[in-house]
Specification:
By secondary structure, the chain is of the alpha/beta class. It has helices at about 20-35, 50, 60-65, 75-85, 95-100, 120-125, 140-150, 175-185, 200-205, 235-245, 255-265, and strands at about 5-10, 40-45, 90, 110, 130-135, 160-165, 190-195, 210-215. The chain contains eleven helices and eight strands.
Length: about 280
């Protein structure tokens, strides 16, 4: 199947405290994501209490956290704008209430790594008629096994994402071969939640059969700093990222293997016979 490339915008729309400027920035990010070659553009909608619990109520942490959450009133407008641009609108939620609110506006629900440990939340998402994309960055092997064991929950287009909860991560921290084998054995589609700086992890993952790629981006550079800024790539880098992923579909790996064997066999093999 064609690769799904998700532009994770996150907090990078919040370069101003004025909501009209936040909305304009979000629209710009949607436009550029489409121009770069992304399949979908993703935002995040949460509350500090959903992330940290009721103990943060009325705290500075709550105020600072909520500042970077997509306001609910913007969701319908950004959904419509993304439709007009021709790119899928996505938004992560962090509670059943959040996912329920997003139901009319998304075709795909994304479950972030920390939320994937919540059976109640995962069961709710799988009970909807939406595609589910689940990151495994916080799951132990046992927890991932429990998640996958009830294969009846998984739809044909649901995706398990190999994720490393480091920002930034290195390619070597991802078990891409292991995930490729795991997905094949369990009959799952898999993808890469890519926290690396370059394109190498995505290229390797695509060659191993990954179908979905998520990358933190800031497609409207400038303005004040945001929590996601330091782990995000710019439009030029993201265009290259999308291009490199799609290039892999034009490479005949079987032909490459044959050529490698020919090159190897052209050396003397001890029987004074050289393959041409």
């Amino acid at each position: 199947m064609k690769p799904i490339v998700i532009a994770e915008v996150g907090s990078n729309i919040f370069k101003s405290e004025h909501l009209d400027q936040v909305f304009d920035n979000a629209c710009r990010q949607i436009e550029v994501a489409k121009q770069c070659g992304a399949t979908a553009v993703k935002f995040q909608m949460f509350t500090a209490q959903e992330l940290y619990g009721p103990q943060v109520s009325n705290s500075e942490l709550e105020r600072n956290t909520n500042r970077y959450s997509l306001p609910r009133e913007m969701v319908p407008m950004l959904f419509e704008y993304a439709n007009d641009v021709g790119i899928e609108f996505m938004c992560s939620a962090f509670s059943i209430d959040g996912y329920d609110f997003l139901e009319p506006y998304v075709k795909t629900h994304k479950i972030a790594s920390p939320e994937a440990v919540s059976k109640e939340l995962v069961d709710y998402v799988f009970s909807t008629d939406k595609r589910a994309i689940v990151s495994n960055g916080c799951l132990t092997k046992q927890e991932q096994g429990a998640l996958v064991s009830d294969i009846s929950k998984w739809g044909a287009d649901d995706i398990l994402m190999e994720c490393v909860s480091n920002y930034p991560a290195t390619t070597s921290q991802y078990d891409l071969i292991g995930m490729s084998k795991y997905a094949k054995v369990n009959g799952l589609l898999w993808g890469l939640s890519d926290h690396t700086k370059g394109t190498a992890a995505a290229v390797i993952a695509r060659r191993l059969g990954a179908v979905c790629f998520e990358k933190h981006v800031d497609l409207s550079p400038g303005g004040s700093e945001t929590p996601d800024k330091c782990v995000s790539i710019d439009p030029e880098e993201f265009s290259l990222y999308c291009e490199k992923i799609k290039e892999q579909d034009n490479i005949d790996l079987w032909d490459t293997k044959l050529k490698s064997r020919v090159l190897y066999a052209r050396r003397s093999n001890g029987y004074r016979h050289v393959n041409e």
